[in-house]
Structure formats: structure tokens, C-alpha cells
Amino acid sequence: MESDSLQTLYYSINRLLFRIILTFVFIKMTTVNFIDKHIIDINKIRAQFPILSRKVNGKPLIYFDNGATAQKPIQVIDAVKKYYEYQNANIHRGVHTLSQEITVAYENARITVQKHLNAEHAHEIIFTKGTTDSINLVAHSFGKKYITKGDEIIISEMEHHSNILPWQQLCEEKGAILQVIPINDSGELLMDEYNKLLSSKTKIVAVTHISNVLGTINPIKEIIELAHAKNIPVLIDGAQAVPHTKADVQELDADFYCFSGHKLFGPTGVGVLYGKEKYLNEMPPYQVGGGTIKTVTFAKTEYADLPLKFEAGTPHVAGGIGLATAIDYVNEIGLDAIAAYENELLMYATNALHNINGIKIIGDATNKASVISFVIKGLHSFDLGTILDQLGIAVRTGHHCTQPLMQHFGIQGAVRISFAFYNTKEEIDEFIKGLERAIKMLS
To answer: What are the structural domains of the chain?
Structure first.
């Protein structure tokens, strides 16, 4: 009996040890997998961006102007080059081999964008010239269909001019009223004030996902939910968001979402407007001409189905293909890994800047992307940017196409540094040295 009890105890201990070992192995494997997903191979990545190897004014280029436009990996450059060297033809217009091949490639690019945004249908993806073009399209077509005198349109105080002027112009044309969501001094939307602005007069809300100056990541889902509770559609300017985070238009329930290819490591001159099918079907064409029609007579024209209805003329074919290549490239690295790495850069640079006398960082929102704007007391942003350029450091200076936002903070302009996943902490160190040198020279 005693022997049996000891044997039972022995087996129980062994089973317990075995479970502990299995648990340890599982945790270790899970941790390794988590870490692997968040590792950026910075040397490999930097080698894929040819421009990062050049010198400016005899110094290695440090490119901190990614908010204006991002650099292009060799994969995107090669895709555009391949099109012009071996595939050049017009799309949707020819029966010959080149036209057929490139039509398939271009429409596959549309599907790539659809999957990236998780749109329900590929025909909800409209290729445009960029974010500005996309917003103008909606302001014109939606406005023509839905906006009348006395209606209200809501934007925010932190908007880029591209998401102010089209709505302002529409209000002037229609006799509508532009309402503005205020922000606090941390650069965050006052959501209670936003909720008060929503009314039966509100016909559309148009806000940025991430501020190009403040780096503030706005509570887009909440903004949309509050608007939808009153059957109000929402347009999201995703120009600054798509390089840094995943935008799932179905999960957000966005009615319109737009972005530019060149900020997502793709070519210039191409962008995207996502729109819910129900709105795009009801909205009239923005521009008309070749490619937008089913039948034409001198008496009447019948327009094409989506998406061609909104894509007049020969599109930027190379741009669409290059954008799809850029999206594949970003997804291969992983947006989670990109966000984690860029957040490290943001924290590192913010801490370093706080050690500089006379500096004021514009906007310190709790939820923020890798953008920092700042002023130095008594110094002009243009002068700082000019000296930094002599040191090979590219930053943005001025009002950043956000003059109303500058007025809120009582400044004329600011220096902005904006990071991408190919930037490094060593570059930030060099930037801090350069900034300190510029301050000393100008003081």
C-alpha cells in the first residue's frame, strides 16, 4: 500500500513538472513570436531605399520630412520602371496584349488597395490624384447631391487646408455653414463640443485620422459612431495615418476614407478614395470624359458603373501599380512592427528635445503618431530649417498648410520632424546636435 502511494505521488509530481515545462515552452514560443513580429531589420530596410545613401551638402542625408512625402523602396521604383520599359499601354481600351495585360495589373492593384483597407467591394476603391483630389471629389459630388442652403458641415480645428478649403468653398456656393470642432492645448479634439455640434442640419463630418502637425491620433471610431447615431456620414482624411497604422474601413464603418500614395512609400500623383457603395452610386460624377461612360449621344449620356464613373481620362497607371507594390512592401514588414518601432523613435526624440532650452513642443496628445512639431523661443523656424539643411538634415518648416491651427497656438509656424521606419535613433542624435548648433548660431 505504501509503495502504491509513493508511486502515485511520483507520477503526480512528474505530471505537474511536465505541465510546468509545457507551459514554460508555450510562453517562450509565444513571446518569441510576439517579438519576431515587432522586430525591424533596420539595416536591411535602409538598403532598400536608394536615396538614403546619398549626401546633402557633403553630409549623409537624414530625412525627417516623411509627413510631407515618404521615400520609395527599390521594389516600388522597379515596378514603375518595369511598367514604362515593358508594359506601357492604356487600360480598358484595347484588345491587344499589352492593353489586356496592364488592365489586369491595374485592376489587381485596386484589389490590393481593397484588401488593405478591408473594403467590402473593389468597386468602392476610386483611384484619384491624391488626398486633396479625393476630398474635392466628395465635396463636389456629395455636395451637389445632398447640400442645400442652411445645411451644416463639420470639420475640426486641426485640419490640413486640403480638408478645409473644399468644404469652405462648398458652403460659399450652397449657402451652407461650416462648423469647427475645437481642440485643447494638448492638441486633442474636444469630443463633448463635437457632440453638441451634431444636429439635424449636419449633412457630413470631415476630419483627419492623424494630424500632420500634432501627430494626434483622433478617436475616429467614436467620431463615426456619434455621427451615425444621427444618420450623418463621415469622411476621414487618412493621408497621415496609412503609413503608420491599419485602417479597416468596415471596422471603423467609415463612409469615405482617403489617402495619398506618395506618403505610403508609393509614387506621387496617385491616391485613393474609398466610399461606401450606396453613396458612390447616388453621387454624380466629379469629372466627365473618356472612361466614365456607357453610351453617349448628343441628346443624353449614360455613365458607367463604379468605379469607372469617377475615373475620367487615362489614369496614372504606373502610379496605381507602384502604390500596390508599396502596400505589399509595408504589409511584408508588418504595420504592427512599424508602429512599435516608430513609437520608440517618437519617445526617444521627444525626451531628447525636452532637454533643449527654450523649446516648446506643439501638441502632447496622449495618443500620438511619430510626428513632432516645435518652436524655439526667439528663433524663426525657417532659419532653423536652413541651417539643419546645411548639415544634411531635412525637416519641414512653416505653417504646414494648417494656418488656423497655428493661430490656435499663437504662432506663425513651426519646425516639424516626422519619422518613418527607415529612420534611426542615431539620426535623431545627429539631429539634436545639429539643432543645438543652429540655436547657438542664431542666438
So the answer is: 42-68+334-442 (3.90.1150.10), 74-332 (3.40.640.10)
